[in-house]
Amino acid sequence: MRVLRFWALALISAAWLCAPMVAAEAKPDQIIVIEGQCDVKDARTGGQRMHLLTFDVPKGVTRIEIKKQLDFGPNGSGTVDHGLADPRGAGFGMPGFRGWMGGSKADFTLTGDPATTSQYYLAGPIQPGRWTLLQWTVSLPPTGLKYRYTVRLSFDGPAPPSEMPQAPKFDQGTLNPKADWYLGDLHAHTLHSDGNKTLSQLTQQHVDAGFDFFVSTDHNTNRAHFEFATAVREHPKELILYGEEVTHPMMHANVIGCRPGSLFDMRIAPDVVTENHLSKVIAQAHRDGAIFSVNHPFYWGATDWRISPDEWKDGDGVEVWNVGWSAANQAALDHWDALLQKGRHLVALSGSDTHGGGVGGSPAVHVYAQNLSRDAIMDGLRKGHVFLSENTKGAQIYLSVRGKSALPGDTLQWSAGNPLPVQVRVIGGDGMTLRLVWPGGEAKLPVDKHIVTISRDIALDASRNANYIRAELIKPDGRMAALTNPIYVK
Ligand SMILES: [Zn+2]
Ligand SMILES: [Zn+2]
Fold first, then answer.
1. What would the pLDDT profile of 369-393 be if each residue is shown by its tens digit?
2. Cα 357 to ligand 1 centre (Å)
3. Which end of the chain is more exposed for a tag (fewer CB within 10 A), N or C?
């Protein structure tokens, strides 16, 4: 990496030429060039490198503009993510976080005003000191990458504020006092990462699709949190939760229900960090009152999920249903079930993963909550009082045990040797098959009415490590219509 600096010629304004009087003295822009190259080894699978390219910002700067030139060679292509940190620091947790853009090739500008700052970045103070351009070589061609960043520092225009803006912290309160099953989407992107909608437009989409709540989960950034006040003002009846999709080539995971402005560092790969940072991210999520869910673990194939279960042993859930039902979702469901059989209690979750193209066909999370508020929804999610359905108008499946008040996610005491009287109420599943699943067994039962309660006594094997019962509703073409979380049995 090589840094070149020079002062640009001050532009002589026409006004100055015409007016013989006084003109404000415009300090010339300062240009810094950062250039260098990366070897393909920098992007080897699982070892993606984060390069910290620094530049010094003097006092009085009002605007930072960074132009990127990325040369992957004549026939090459690659993916490079970029972020920016101010002098507060780019260490783990990123105290100086000012923005992140995954894979986007766009140049960007940062000022004190959101209106003139690129959508990925946080407008605010431009502190003098050492700034860091984060360069993450996710994939590179065999010839590597030659890069050149031209940083232009300007001194004209409005002075930036001296303090960072605070993400609006507000309590939407209780939007519905009734204890009920509420419909949510736990995974959605705005234009502050790679979606194409503002937070408010995304909220409108969720209102239109019939969701009571949704979680804003942009990749590696909290930028959308700063738009919550507008979104809530425009859509006061929709509950919006803060979140982030912690995104690394080795894993994607959702933090759901964090505090406004919280940022969760994605740098969890073995050679980016040295210690078990994933567990630190999970602990941070829990301190925030949020839950941590592993996302679409097999979306790109069977080897995607390269983080061992031990490293996320404190995680809360698995997104077993991402977008429409697929082989990748089936693999995630099987993986989740295998973990349940080992005795883990993990909540099966779903997400539309919308990037703005519509959420009408998305899976829906049904959460039983004491009311429609942030705290009650988070409580229901944490307890696993959840079933999933293919969309907000899809089939519903209510799993219970006769004579008990247990919901999915709860643990029931049961004396060994007695069959468990399982009951499932199905709405909208006529013509489908109800599949009851427990460790070492399954039962397939036809559903022949629009609304029906199906009962079955299940003999559980008390010698197993773990025992539970869960239910799936399967369409005639073999695709999933709905599935429940397990009722655990002791
Ligand atoms: Zn993802
Ligand atoms: Zn996503």
1. 999 999 999 999 999 999 999 999 9
2. 15
3. C
